[in-house]
Specification:
Glutaredoxin
Amino acid sequence: MTAIDYFFTPLSPFTYLAGTRLEEIAAETGAEIRYRPLDVVQLFGRTGGTPPKDRHPARQAYRLQEMRRLGAKLGLPINLKPAHWPTNPAPAAFAIIGAQRAGGGGDLGALAHGLARACWAEERDIADDGVIREVLERSGFDGALADVGMLEAAEEYGRNLEDAVAANVFGAPFYVVGEEVFWGQDRLEDLRLHLKGEI
């Protein structure tokens, strides 16, 4: 089975705007998704990127226009300046890692998207334990996963960053299939075509 290493942060608006299209592509092509949440600010620092707050005003303005247009195009409501952004993405990332380690019983795609949606469409703080528990439960997982295996999750979170750098990942969301890399939710169709052997 072909594996997609999905490097992302639930704090990214473009992770949110990807919706559940990755999961649809995986179902269509028989691919496996390995969810690899990471610290995107550290990734920027390691790969020459600039955090949004430090970008030139022209770039910041364009980013907001892109977000608004994409939200309308994709039918996804989005608050361009959410109340709880930026926030600490680690607790949400740890929950995703814990849920993936726990195996079956829930929908990892719904969890990853639900946490991003909480930030970008629901004005909720994804660093808040109560929010994380609720999204876990809504996605079919035990809410207690928010508090289980934190040390192991933190170690995996760090490894995800190192693996991303080694795989030439420099942003989020990023999709890696072997040596082929796809940056951004706007490259999901290219990923689909690649998995089908068409490009």
